[in-house]
Design brief:
356 residues; alpha+beta; Immunoglobulin-like; 3 domains; 24% helix; 31% strand
Length: 356
């Protein structure tokens, strides 16, 4: 081979190596803006370093649902959609990624609870331990077999050992999950009258019966609006004063978390030849939904009837007479009746009428 051709071949090989290296570096750091945090804790556990807490895709806060996959930085990009027909990942240790998504599907209840957690976390997570608590509760619902469960438990034990308050945070959030997935808003109206007060009972109802606590419900009675907050059973009550006759309209609305979270998968996650298949799946809060309810009643005017009855139809001279007054059709009305009643007295002189 001529020297010039040899030098050209060498340069071609060098350039090819450099380009390949640049491509590999670029692929390994495809999403350098993605990663763990900003809130969470790292602990050493059986099986290696564990990260409990938030992740982020750019500025979007997300939560990981795969224990046996690679980090988000190696993704070529992301695609997002409401979570549907999502299978749990199984196994641990081989970073199997997409190949290990062979567990059971997340149930509607599990999806609603995960969506509730992600929604609550948008404003409720203010420290690393609370972020770890949210992560733990999501993991409890997304691990797919005993291997993953063992890894999850090892992570949690190590985290609680380092941060004992974590167990209390998890228990507190678990109690709040009992009302996740509320799908109906109910109103029970005890209509007021012209003379008596009434009330409207508000209830959020979910798959387990009681709805979530702490939900603000806007209640509009006629042209007046008031806000009530649900208690631990998903209920609230608004007292209504007595009202003038006419139609009474009551409407209520409440904003609740989505029933399904948003699922984020690497751009080429389903391609068995793409490195994207090894990247963790993530979830984030879905769009909140609005529940509404309405009811109405007619407040009737008072139409009372008044009757009187004298104690004696025929009275003897000197007898005491009483008059009984009865009012019907006006409950709650109090009034005072005053009047002069003539007395029957013996005549002082024959032929004279008794005086009054």
């Amino acid at each position: 081979m001529r020297p010039m051709m040899k030098r050209a071949a060498i340069w071609i090989c060098v350039l090819a190596s450099v380009c390949t290296g640049l491509l590999l570096v670029d692929r390994a750091q495809a999403r350098p803006i993605d990663g763990f945090g900003p809130r969470g804790i790292r602990v050493q556990a059986d099986g290696g370093l564990a990260e409990l807490g938030q992740y982020h895709l750019g500025e979007l806060v997300v939560w990981c649902i795969d224990l046996n996959s690679g980090g988000p930085r190696s993704a070529s990009g992301w695609r997002s959609a409401p979570a549907e027909n999502v299978r749990k990942q199984t196994g641990f240790g081989d970073r199997g990624g997409r190949g290990d998504v062979t567990g059971p599907e997340l149930t509607a209840t599990e999806l609603a609870e995960i969506a509730w957690l992600a929604d609550w976390a948008r404003t409720g997570v203010r420290d690393d331990v609370t972020a770890a608590a949210v992560d733990q509760l999501i993991r409890q619902r997304t691990v797919g077999d005993d291997q993953q469960r063992a890894r999850m438990d090892a992570r949690y034990r190590a985290a609680v050992a380092a941060h004992p308050v974590l167990a209390d945070r998890v228990a507190e959030l678990e109690r709040g999950l009992r009302g996740a997935g509320a799908d109906t808003l109910e109103l029970d109206l005890t209509a007021p009258s012209v003379t008596a007060a009434g009330a409207v009972a508000v209830r959020l109802r979910g798959p387990r019966g009681d709805g979530p606590a702490g939900v603000r419900v806007l209640v509009q009675v006629g042209d007046q609006r008031q806000q009530v907050t649900t208690d631990a059973t998903g209920r609230a009550r608004l007292e209504l004063p007595a009202r003038e006759p006419g139609e009474l309209s009551v409407q209520a609305s409440a904003t609740l978390p989505a029933l399904r979270p948003i699922l984020h998968t690497a751009k080429n996650y389903d391609d068995p030849k793409s490195p994207d298949r090894l990247v963790q799946r993530m979830i984030s809060a879905g769009e909140p939904r609005q529940l509404t309810a309405r009811t109405a009643a007619t407040i009737q005017p008072l139409r009372p009837t008044i009757t009187t009855r004298t104690s004696e139809q025929v009275a003897e001279p000197g007898a005491v007479l009483t008059d009984q007054v009865e009012v019907r059709g006006a409950p709650g009305i109090r009034t005072e009746v005053r009047g002069a009643v003539g007395s029957v007295r013996p005549a002082a002189h024959r032929g004279e009428l008794p005086g009054r």
